[in-house]
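Hi U.,

Before I forget, here's the chain from the pilot set. I'm dumping it here mostly so it's searchable later in email.
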Amino acid sequence: MDILKIESTKDTPTVILNPITNVFEISGKSHPENIREFFKPIFEWLDNYYTEVKGKKDTKIEFNLNYIYVNSSSFKYLIVLIKKLKEFYESGVYVEFVWHYEQDDDDMKESGFELFEMSEINIPFRYASYIDDDNE
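Structure:
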């Protein structure tokens, strides 16, 4: 299966879903005009990947979410994304989400907490703060 790579634009984040390393990432700003069209290839790719790894207990996926900004529509689709990964997890595939946020950005940290709370699933997730050296 091929790597899914979607380059960022001024309104959309970078997406890299790598089936070789099982490290997935969505990073940047997310406020696309058509959120459904943006997430469509991501959901299709995940559906195809699920058929390959379903039940493979030796598969471990790390899903990194590193947003600078997420609008409410994107947030809703992230909940759908997390619920989709729940299928992987329930089939025996280990999935862990990592919510990255700038160390001083309490709002983005809180957004991560709300995202996982609202998705109402029991998949491992953790926070990873970083210092943005570009802003100093």
